[in-house]
Amino acid sequence: MSTPAGGTAVVTGGSSGIGAAVALRLAAAGWDVVVSGRDRTRLAAVAAACGGTAVEADLARPDGVEAVRSAAEGRVRLLVHGAGLGWAGPVADTPPDAVSAMLAVNLDAPIRLTNALLPTLRDQDGHVVFVASVAAIGVAGEAVYSATKAGLRGFADAVRLESGVRVTTVLPGAVDTPYFARRGTPYHRRFPRPVSADRVAAAVVDSVGRDRAEVFVPRWLTLGARVHGAVPATFARLSRRFDPPAR
């Protein structure tokens, strides 16, 4: 069964990048949008552009998670987990605070928010979208980020089976957003080339309308995931050809 537009959609990570693009797309499709994020100025601009409500919240902090829960409880029909943090470099060099932040924002916050809002989502015949990443299959130089996205994908699969709400996982490749600037390391891979945030947002809205379980953006990345699942050693050899070691 598809998820028709209408009702309240809550989008985390809504102050820029994929989250902002999703908020604008959802508003255009007829949703009443609540956007959360850390950057007050950008968040206010996105909320104004989509005629929605801004909730300033840092999802690395318990009070940030609580602020989103409080704003969404009792009315959310669509929950889009768009917030995310990254760090690039060898796993042995990953700073402990970066590990903690990625675990908190990329994995812990979506789990806690989903758990807290499931009663409302069930009542509203709701839908949850997890913006994961193709890195969920493992990317050199982004071990902790990959782990958080793999965990998010696994959690989404389990919630889809047991919760009684619709669940979609969106797995983009590289996306042209401020994410790379914030993580402190530019995108260095020769392949694949980054896609726009709006392209991912269009896939999110389409997947909600069609009630799709899992979507890769661009779609050809599905092939890489299948190769990884069937012959992981071959996948690793191919990956090294396009993925120089992170420095």
Automatic annotation (TrEMBL):
A Pfam match: adh_short
Keyword Oxidoreductase: yes
UniProt KW Oxidoreductase keyword: yes
Source organism, top-level taxon: Bacteria
Alphabetical keyword list: Oxidoreductase
GO cellular component, one term: membrane
SMART domains, A to Z: PKS_KR
GO terms of molecular function: oxidoreductase activity
Positions of the Ketoreductase domain: 7-178
Similarity annotation: Belongs to the short-chain dehydrogenases/reductases (SDR) family.
PANTHER family registered for this protein in UniProt: DEHYDROGENASE/REDUCTASE SDR FAMILY MEMBER 7B, DEHYDROGENASE_REDUCTASE SDR FAMILY MEMBER 7B
Name of the protein: Short-chain dehydrogenase/reductase SDR
Biological source species: Pseudonocardia dioxanivorans (strain ATCC 55486 / DSM 44775 / JCM 13855 / CB1190)
